[in-house]
Amino acid sequence: MSQRKKTSGIIATLLFLAFITPIFISGFINLKNAENANQVGEYKTASEFYAQAAKIFFWRNDLWEKAGIASAQAQDYSNAIFYFKKVNQLSEQGWAWFGTSYFQTNDVEKAISTFENGLKENQSATLYRLLASAYRSQKRWEAEKNALENQIQLDSQDAYAQYRLGILLMIFSPAEAYDKLNRASTLNVETDSAVDTLITALNIADTQSNESDKYVTIGRALGLVQEWELAFVAFQKSIELNEENAEAWAWLGEAKQQQGQDGSVELNQALRLNHTSATVRGLRALYWNRQEKYAQMLAEYSLANEFEPTNPAWLAGIGEAHAKLGDLISALQAYQQAVELAPDEATYWRVLAMFCAENNFYIEEIGLPAAEQAVSLSSNDPTNLDALGYTYFLSGRYSNAELTFLRAIELSPQYFPAHLHLAMNYLAQGNRAEAYNTLVFVRDADISGVYRELAQNLLNQYFP
């Protein structure tokens, strides 16, 4: 090779290096900026820097994935999907965020197929958990059950997965539900109350010879723990086993109402099948209550009480209906009859106390003693303590009220009525700082939105 050619080659190489070196330096800077932003939670910025670095280091498969994950963490799901599509081979985390991005953009089918594709490459408890959640959103209960079973095989320490699988098994294979529910309770004591309710129902169902009635019992328990979608499935199954089961039809109507539907067709069918069923009448009373048809509500509860005179719930319902119709004397008499029928049940003493409190009616003479009796019968129930605190508050016993509300909150920190009543008690004492802090807590902590709205209304009223 001539000296001239060697010189030309060296010059070309130097020119190439002069051109390419700034580009690589820019890539390293982008990568460094991306890592720094990611560490402090600035995910949107991190995703942009990762994407810039990926364009330069085109052989780095992981950079587009990192850009996608950061975008998803920044809740920029459309860009996340765009970045993930550029990746040749995703990691387990990448598949999880890719599917989640589709799910968050309401493309559930794409989310499911993405999770399934990820599972072909990674046997992952996380991917099975996300897949189960996607199936749940589509009410594909058996598919959700199968995904949870696979998840638990890989991770048996997830309390929610055990609990969720347990309640699904109540529908598909009740005998297998015990183990999962008990396991959930062992892993997380916060599930104890719900698990106790569900296992009690399973035990009762085991004693029932009629398969249709078994599923009514299971459905009612699922409703008690606010799993109304699955309760609906249980009641449907009960009707499939016996189309003449009036109570199953009535409970199906209730399950529909709990999910924002009408339910009157099912309630009317229940009435046609058995017009003397106290349960049917009681559930129809609930329907009329929601419709604000209180005369019809009273009529249904009265018939329920006639057909089942030993059940204090119907008398309490009669009391509520009279109160909503403005007949406080008749309401008081009905509540007192409920207490006489079940003197050892704290629930009816509490209901009587709250009736007096909410209507400013015989608070000292009847309401306060009733609340005290409820607490004496069940001293660790926050609802009873809240009722007692509220009657103290209304009767001007602010110090007693504060101590009682705080005791209720200590027992159940997320029992928001006690927080709201405590805030009102603080306001009555002129303690605006504590009232404000309490209301802000409820506003920020209540995910249901019901108590959040009440807290916000009080904040608007007293702290404009």
Task: Give an overview of the whole structure.
This protein is an all-alpha fold. Helices cover about 80% and strands about 0% of the residues. It is built from 26 helices and no strands. The chain has helices spanning about 5-40, 45-55, 60-75, 75-85, 90-105, 110-120, 125-135, 140-155, 160-170, 175-185, 190-205, 210-225, 230-240, 245-260, 265-275, 280-290, 295-305, 310-325, 330-340, 345-360, 365-375, 380-395, 400-410, 415-430, 430-445, 450-460. Helix 1 (about 5-40) packs antiparallel against helix 2 (about 45-55), helix 5 (about 90-105) runs antiparallel to helix 6 (about 110-120) and helix 10 (about 175-185) packs antiparallel against helix 11 (about 190-205). The longest helix is centred in the N-terminal third of the chain and has 37 residues, at about 5-40. The termini are far apart.
Quickly count the helices.
Answer: 26
Oligomer: single chain
Question: Which band does the percent of strand residues land in?
Answer: under 5%
Q: Rg, please?
A: 31 Å
Largest sheet: none
Order of helices and strands: HHHHHHHHHHHHHHHHHHHHHHHHHH
Q: Classify the secondary structure makeup into a structural class.
A: mainly alpha
Portion in helices = over 70%
- Uncertain spans: 9-24
- Average the pLDDT over all residues and give the rounded result: 90
The coarse silhouette is: globular
Distance between the termini: 88 Å
The number of strands is: 0
